[in-house]
Structures are given as C-alpha cells and as structure tokens.
Design brief:
- This protein has 887 residues and is of the alpha+beta class.
- Helix content is 17%, strand content 42%.
- Helix 5 packs across helix 7.
- The longest helix has 17 residues, at 98-114.
- 27% of the residues are buried.
Length: 887
C-alpha cells in the first residue's frame, strides 16, 4: 500500500479485494478500485504488479484525496450558527470538492438575504496542507445592514379597512425584512378578510420595490375582496357547531360550495352519532348585491336507538363473524358509541363486509343495500341482505423455479392454504409474502408470479407460483465515509453487517438504526453501491455525519411532592472518539439534591454489552425522615428485541435521620453500607414509552445485598410490575398496573427486641402513597397501622416502611379538547411489615379524577384523590401536580 498522504492502513486493507496467496483476478482488481473510490480516500487509485517468487506482488497506489478537517464560519453572524451551517454542502470528513464549496457561498448569502440582509457577502478561504492532504474551509460572513419593510400598498378592487389589514401583517412598515414570513403575508390578509366576513377574498403579492439608499423594501398586495358572506344557522346552536369544528367556513378557511357540502355531511354525521338518525340538513345560497347569504337548516328529528342487527340471505357465513366486521352495533351498556346508525360508518361497514366475503371465497357476493327499520317507539333494526353466490376454494398450491428455498418453507409463510378460501387478493398477498422471504435471503431481484388453473370442479382453483430467483446479493465489503472523530475500527463494530451476509432492505435499515442509536451522528445513510462489476456481491456504503458532541441543557419545574426544582446537565457524547459518553447532572429542588456523573459506552471490550458507571451523591427529604445516599453503580445491559436485560452492581453509603422513635426504626437500620447485585428484566410491548395507548410491559428486579467491602446489610429484594393499555379510539385509553414486592432479611438477628425487617435499612424498604403509587394518600402515608405505619396518641403519623408491597391501579384517560384530557382512576394496595403478611382484606382503596395536558416531554397532570375508608388521621383528599404518567 503506497500513498502520498496519511492513510489508515487497517481501514484500507479491509477494502482491498486482493488477497495474498489467492489468484490475482481482474474482478478483484476492479472491486478494489471501486471500493477505495467509494470510500473517498483517494482522488486516484492504481493497482500494479511486480514479479515475486511464486507469483507477483500487488502494489496499490493511492493519490490521496484532500480531506476537509474543518468547516468554519467567522465574522458577524446575525442569525443562529446552526441555521447557516445546515445550508453548507461541503461537510467535515468528506473530500474537498470545489463545486460544493462554492455553492456554500451562494447558500449563505441566500439564507442571510431571506432574513433581511440583502447585501450580505460570504468570502471563501480554503487552506490546504499538501503534506497531510487536509484542508480547512472558512467562510467569512459580512452581513451588512439589515433591510426593513418600507411602505405597504394595498391595491384593492373594492373598499377595505386598510388599517385593520395592516395590523394583520406580521412584518409591517419599519419591521425587519424577513422573506420567509413575507411569503405568508397573503394568507394572513385572506384570513383577516375572512374574519370580517369576506370569505371569498383573494390576495396576491406583487413584485417588491427596493430603495437602496434607505435599505427599505416597499411591498404591494393586490386584493379582490368579493362579497360579504353571511351565514344563518336554523335549528341548532351555532356556538356548539363551531366548537365541534362543523362550520369550517366560519373560521379562517375561505368559503366555497365544496366546503359547504362538506360541512353539511359533517353535521349530519355529528347528529347521527348522537342518535338522531333521521336528521335532515339542508343548505342554500343566495347572492344579494355585495352579500352572499348562506343558510344551513337542521331538523334533528327523534332520537333513536339501534336495538337489533339482522343478516338475511347468508347461509355459510355465520352472523357472529359478519357482526365482528362491523363498527355499527346494537346498544351495549359498556360500549361507547354503540346503538347508533351513522350513514357514513354504515357505508364503510358494508364495504368491509364485501371484502370479508371476498377473502372467504365468495368473490361474487352482494352485500346491501342495508335497510333501517323502525320497530316501535324509539327503536331501530338494521337489516343487511347478503347474497353469497358460489364459493371458490383453493385446490393445490404448486411451486416452480425455487431452487435455493425449500418448497415447505415457502408454503409455511402463506395464508393461502389448500382447501381454504380463494380470492385474487389472497394470491397477491401470497406473492408479497414469498418476495419478502427471498428478499431477506438476499435475492433482492427475485421475480414471483402466480397463475390460476381450474380443474374438473369449477369451485376449486389450483395456484401455481413461478419463481425466478436471480442472483443472491451478499456483502462483499463495507465502506465507511464521513467519520472524522470516530475511528473506523470503532465505527465498524456497530455496523451489523459482515462479509457474506445477505443484503436486504431490513438489514440495511437495521444498520442505520444501530448507528443512530449511538447518538453521535446527525445523519446516517446506508446504501448499496451500484456497479456493473459487482454481480453477485455488493459493496455497502455507510455514510455518516458526526453531530456536535458537547451538549448543555437546563430546565426548571415543579411538582407537588418535591416542590420547585432546577436541572442542569453537561455532556460529551463522543469521548475520545470512542462512541462513549460522560455527563454531569445536577438536580436541586426544595426537598432533594441529586448530583450524578455518568459514563456510558455501547460496548464492553469485545462483548456486545452496553456498559455504564454512575457516581451519585443525593439527599432527599421524606415526610418522616431525611436520607442521604452516595455511591457507585456499575452496570451492563443488552437488548434482545423487546426484552432489555440488565445487571447492576451498586455500592452505596446510606445515612438516615428521622424523628421516628428508636423502637420503630432501630439505629442500626438508619445508617448502612449496602453492596448489592441486581439482575433486571424489562419486556416492553407498548406503542409509545412516553404516552402509550396500546400494548403491555412487564418488569422484574431481584436485588441481593451481601456483606462485602465493609458493607453491613444482607437481604433479598424482589419487585415486579406489569402494565397494560387498551386503546378505545376517540374515547381514550384504559390503563392498568399491578406491582408486587417482597424483602427478606438475611442478616443475623442479634437483638431480641428486633426481628426480620428491622435489620433491613429503612431507606431500602417499600413505601407507598403519592403521585406514582397510590393517589388517595399523601407521599409515603400508605401502610398498616401498628406494622408499617405508626400512629401516635396525639394524631401524629410516621411511616417506617415494610417488606411486603402490593399495588393495583386502574385508570381511564379520555380526551377533552386539543391536548387537554381527563382521568378517572381507582388505586388500591398497601405496605405490610413482611411479604408473608400480605392480606387482601387490608388493601386500602381510593378513587380520584384529574386533568392532563400532553406536552412534548410527557403529560402534565393535576389530580385529586379520595380514600374510600378514610381513617381519622387522614386528610379528606389529597392532590398532586406532576409530569409524566403514574405508570
């Protein structure tokens, strides 16, 4: 390997297809040239040979490409640096290209001009180090003066309120010129005119006039006002319809006939969903001079309830199966929206029934039209006629042309089965399933077709799949581009593609996801290089763009348990280019202080395990004691699909100060040194980790504390939680949680006055009550009196924690409007002294309600809870303000 610049010989050799001891072929030379050029490491590559004993020596000569090691912006930057950097095509870590560098000048000047710096200039400076083959690109920005909006002219065909329209502009006279906002001004003017009743008005921006001496831009807008639109609503509350967004032309939308018809259909659907199936909605328009009169008349009619659904004519298709394919259903007490006939939904139901009949083999089935009959009083019956017609079934399933994939494996993935129903949709679905089987094996160009053959029995259809497998695409090499701070050796260990692996869309996507998960790249592209020389194999090109590695974040917040709080976090996400991260986090609130230094790296030596180390120092004020912890936690984890497996080692020093009497929490249980190992399993099938709507999760933690390194605690602790979520569609979400915990003391009992749980440090016991456990009780105030809850004669209450925990939560989350929703919940559970003492008869129940706002970082909750069997020392209600779901 020879080069006129710096080279990474390890990386280069991984791209060379020529191998010592193997025949030197033209294909190997071509592959070598192609890969090295794709890597962008050289502007020219040559392969030569020279005689050697027993063969030849291959000499690869590279004329190194000039690599850009930095792209900098200098001068006065009047807007955010990140907005300017994203416009530059020449990226760090890529070969220097003149056209990309020059286009960066134009991109900077265009972006600045759009912000009002119409005379901005960007001066380019490229410094090349010929020895190192490296370049530094610098753009010096001279923004010049910022232009402002001068006069604004409104060229209107009819009289308009000029002052009102000028007030609607975002950037009026004297404001800075901003092109990205000015392009939206015609829409703003149209919305303001619509608000004044001119809902058919159009606004067009005319060419600008620039005054160079004053650095001002005069703007002109042509306005065609049109008639004033007056709307009359008869038979309904106009405000109610507007609130439900059923009259869009009364908002900021322009009025037209299509929007009126759409509104009528929406109103009809709205009333039918409320039970007024016979509702009549009539619309009319009338032009009177400069006024366009629109009338919407609504006659709700009687409120009717759907009591029965009947299917007639079906012989082979069961009524139960047909009913399951319909959203329309008879009245059911626990099913929201049942008992209603909605024409739009009924039409969709009939279409769904036709599809169901077809895939069951009744390709000629006729469904409908449905009849809605009144059966007395306010009751309805829905009758759905069905003519099944002849049924066709699958005879034999045959395969031809498959050589690499066994017939049995292909047949196993098909929903289409001999003797089962036949329909062309099932055949098309089978073709796609077979194509995916081949695609996952690397046969990306496999062609699959199907032919149908009728036998002596016309109801049986034999299906023959013909396969043209083509060539199998496998990974011959992986080329890396764009990495500057991260060495190729480090990057390659996270690319889940090795030589010989089949190339498929799924494998390329997984490689992209694996690199994004590192959190150090702002862009990752994984593609297969096209080349006429690469026939059965392929070169996978991984192109990355490294993001900023140093981050700082801060925040403030409040919740009812910890009070006001502030957060500061400083992090380096790509330490020494090893894809490792280190962060310093500080959280200070009215009742807690937390300081943490966390080191993470996504590997542990040669093992595919994520390693983390955390040093922490935290103090927390509980209602009955203050606890201080400091320690070190080491952990490894690995994800297996939906399962996350972790193993933690934790050494912590715990100091507890409490006003609780010594007979309730012994002195030896207040201060402790705890060394423990804890395996953790978390299985997550939720659709969203922040605000799930469907799915479930299961987690379990087993902690074993043992006396080592001066640690004096010894116990076993088991905790498990299961959550489930049911999506109710527009009606909301039903959420549930079950938590169980047990602690067993293993420390020798030396004091006859104390036993079992008394020897477990108070800070390690279970406590409950509060915003995330049992919302009918104050924080840590749930317990069994005399066991885990101490009640003094003067009414003072202390919680001392216990070794047994059981909590159950049921919650209904429903929408109100926009991002605002509500909750109704039932919480139950308790904390017992020992886990063998858990008694269902001692479970404390509570109910509550609340409101929630779905913010970008999670739901903000305000909730109130009431204990159902309140004791004399307990408050009549408790309330909480917090961020995030309780489970």
């Amino acid at each position: 390997m020879r080069s006129d610049g710096e080279i990474d010989s390890w990386e280069l050799r991984s791209l060379v297809a020529i191998r010592p001891g193997e025949p030197l072929t033209t294909q190997a030379v071509r592959d070598t040239l192609s890969r090295l050029r794709l890597a962008g490491l050289a502007s020219e590559v040559e392969v030569g040979t020279r005689p050697a004993p027993g063969g030849v020596d291959a000499v690869v000569v590279l004329r190194a490409d000039i690599q850009v090691e930095s792209v900098e912006l200098t001068g006065e930057l009047p807007i955010e640096r990140s907005r300017l950097e994203v416009t530059l095509e020449q990226k760090t870590g890529r070969p220097l290209r003149e056209d990309r560098v020059v286009r960066g000048v134009y991109a900077l000047e265009s972006t600045l001009a759009d912000e009002g710096y119409l005379g901005a200039r960007a001066r380019l400076d490229v410094v090349v180090d010929p020895d190192r083959k490296r370049a530094r690109v610098t753009y010096e920005v001279e923004p010049g003066p910022r232009w402002t909006v001068g006069d604004v002219h409104l060229d209107a065909t009819e009289p308009v309120d000029v002052a009102d329209l000028l007030d609607a502009l975002r950037d009026g006279p004297g404001e800075p010129y901003r092109g990205r906002f000015l392009r939206e001004e015609p829409d703003r003017l149209e919305r303001r005119l619509a608000r004044s009743g001119y809902r058919q008005a159009t606004v067009e921006a005319l060419p600008e006039t620039r005054r160079e001496a004053e650095h001002r831009v005069d703007l002109t807008y042509r306005i065609e006002r049109g008639p004033r639109v007056e709307v009359e609503i008869v038979g309904a509350d106009r405000k109610e319809l507007e609130k439900k967004d059923l009259l869009p032309f009364l908002g900021t939308e322009r009025y037209d006939e299509a929007l009126l018809l759409q509104s009528a259909a929406s109103i009809r659907k709205y009333y039918q969903e409320k039970g007024y199936w016979k509702v009549q909605v009539e619309t009319s328009e009338e032009r009177d001079g400069e006024v366009q009169r629109v009338r919407v008349a609504i006659e709700p009619g009687p409120k009717l309830v759907l009591e029965e659904i009947e299917f007639e004519g079906n012989e082979l298709l069961p009524d139960e199966q047909l009913a399951r394919r319909m959203a329309t259903s008879p009245k059911r007490a626990l099913t929201p929206g049942s008992g209603r006939v909605v024409d739009e939904q009924l039409a969709a139901d009939l279409s769904n029934l036709r599809s169901y009949c077809a895939v069951q083999g009744f390709g000629e089935a006729k469904v409908g039209p449905a009849r809605v009959e009144e059966i007395g009083g306010d009751r309805l019956r829905l009758v759905v006629p069905i003519e099944e017609g002849p049924r066709r079934r699958v005879g034999a399933i045959l395969f031809a042309g498959n050589e690499e994939v066994p017939t049995a494996e292909l047949a196993a993935v098909l929903r289409l089965q001999p003797g089962g129903p036949y329909h062309r949709v099932l055949v098309d679905e089978a073709i796609e399933q077979l194509r995916l089987v081949y695609e996952r094996r690397g046969y990306r160009s496999a062609l699959i077709s199907a032919s149908v053959e009728a036998g002596a029995d016309p109801s049986l259809q034999s299906v023959r799949f013909s396969v043209l497998e083509g060539r199998r695409s496998t990974v011959e090499a992986v080329v890396l581009r764009g990495n500057v701070r991260t060495p190729s050796r480090v990057l390659r260990r996270f690319v889940p593609l090795t030589v010989g692996d089949p190339i498929s869309s799924g494998s390329l996507l997984e490689a992209q996801r694996a690199l994004y998960r590192l959190g150090i790249f702002s862009r990752v592209d994984v593609t297969v290089a096209g080349s006429r020389f690469l026939r059965t194999g392929g070169t996978v090109v991984v192109e990355v763009e490294e993001g900023k590695s140093i981050h700082a974040s801060y925040g403030v917040g409040y919740d009812s348990e910890s009070g006001a709080r502030g957060l500061l976090n400083l992090s380096q996400s790509n330490l020494f280019g090893r894809a490792a991260s280190v962060s310093l986090g500080v959280l200070v609130s009215e009742r807690a202080e937390v300081y943490r230094v966390i080191y993470r790296q996504p590997y542990l030596g040669p093992l595919p395990l994520e390693f983390s180390g955390t040093f922490y120092d935290e103090t927390e004020d509980h209602p009955d004691f203050d606890v201080a912890r400091r320690g070190l936690q080491l952990g490894v984890q690995r994800r297996f699909g939906s399962l996350l497996a972790s193993l933690l080692y934790d050494y912590r020093i715990v100091e507890l100060e409490s006003s609780v009497a010594e007979e309730d929490i012994p002195l030896e249980s207040r201060d402790a040194r705890v060394a423990s190992v804890a395996p953790i399993l978390f299985y997550d099938r939720r659709d969203d980790p922040i605000d799930p709507r469907r799915g479930w999760s299961l987690s379990t933690t087993f902690e074993r504390a043992f006396p080592v390194l001066r640690a004096d605690s010894e116990f076993r602790k088991l905790f498990g939680q299961a959550t489930g979520y049911v999506d109710l569609g527009k009606w909301g979400v039903f959420a549930s949680s079950l938590r169980l915990g047990a602690i067993e003391n293993l420390r020798p009992e030396t004091d006859p006055e104390f036993s079992d749980i008394d020897y477990v440090p108070g800070s390690e016991r279970f406590f409950a009550g509060g915003r995330t456990s049992h919302r009918a009780f104050e924080r840590d105030r749930l317990g069994v009196p005399g066991e885990t809850l101490v009640v003094r004669d003067d009414g003072e209450v202390y919680s001392i924690g216990g070794g047994g925990l059981a909590l159950a939560n049921l919650e209904y989350r429903f929408p109100i409007f926009g991002g605002i929703g509500g909750t109704l919940f039932v919480d139950g559970g308790n904390v017992w002294r020992r886990f063998v003492d858990i008694d269902p008869s001692e479970v404390r129940w509570g109910v509550g309600t609340g409101v929630r706002y779905l913010s970008p970082i999670g739901p903000l909750r305000l909730e109130v809870g009431w204990a159902l069997d309140r004791r004399p020392w307990e408050p009549s209600y408790v309330w909480f303000v917090s961020l995030g779901n309780p489970f």
